[in-house]
Amino acid sequence: MVYLNLSRQGLTVLPPIPADVTHLHCFDNQLTDLTDLPDGLLSLNCGDNKLTTLPVLPDGLTNLDCSNNELTALPDLPAGLIDLYCSFNKLTALPNLPARLKKIFCHGNQLISLPDLPARLTYLGCSDNELTSIPNLPAKLDQFICTNNQLTSLPNLPAKLEYFFCDDNQLTALPYLPDSLVHIECSNNQLVVLPKLPTVLFSLKCSNNQLTALPDLPERLVEIYCFNNPFPPELQEIIDRYINDVPKHQLIISVNHYNEEERRRATLRQAGREMATLRSILPALPGNTFRANDPFAERLRKLQHNHNSFGPRRPRKSLRKKRKQGRKTRRN
């Protein structure tokens, strides 16, 4: 194995590459063209340049990273290619994918469709494109990220899938969720109902949908975000159902649409009686106003909150500025 690293050198042209080089890194330069790649090259990282085309790729290439360029098309891919990183280009289509391919990162392009996916594929990342459909997913796939496309439906999910991200689409329903799933993000869609959740699920993010109820939550679930859904006013029912039995849950329900403000406040007061449970909840119920001497307000002061007005606390004249509640974000 012979490694050659020419990265971050300010190069506009590659120097002659020795014939015995097997791993070439030339990322983060100003290259506009690649020529005369060694026939024995196994790995090529030419990301973060100004490439508009790639040359014919060596037959033995197993790893290609050409992300963050200006490519509008890819050449034929070698039969032995295992990992393909081509995110953040101007691709409108992908070539036929080799049978040995295991990982595809094609985020941030202009793809309107994907070719048939190889059976060995374990990772598919195709976020931030213009996809309206997804082909059948391989049985070995364990990570699937299709965030921010124009999808209205999805194919069946593989039985081994563990991580599933489909935020920011136009989905009205999700397919059956396999028992292996541990993390689901389906926020910013038009979902009206969620399917049965896997027993091993530990994180669910389903904010900004049209959900009016939640399915039974698995015992292992430790994180749920369900901001901006039109839940009914019986918040206590939700808390009792999903929190009391599993105190470690963090229930986050923000800017949910309630028909009657007074019923919402009454429900919140009822929920406040279960402080042992509420201590494990991160209440994010913006826009609520409570009297200065409201016992429920006093209890909630001990919890994280945002954009709630509680009135002054004796003997102080005003409540300290509310702490900003952080929110975790992910995408590969």
UniProtKB/TrEMBL annotation:
- Could you tell me which residues belong to the region Disordered? 304-332
Keyword vocabulary terms for this entry:
Leucine-rich repeat, Repeat
Cited Gene3D superfamilies: Ribonuclease Inhibitor (3.80.10.10)
Can the keyword GTP-binding be found in this entry's annotation?
no
Which spans does this entry mark as compositional bias, Basic residues?
313-332
Recorded protein name is Uncharacterized protein
Source organism per UniProt: viral metagenome
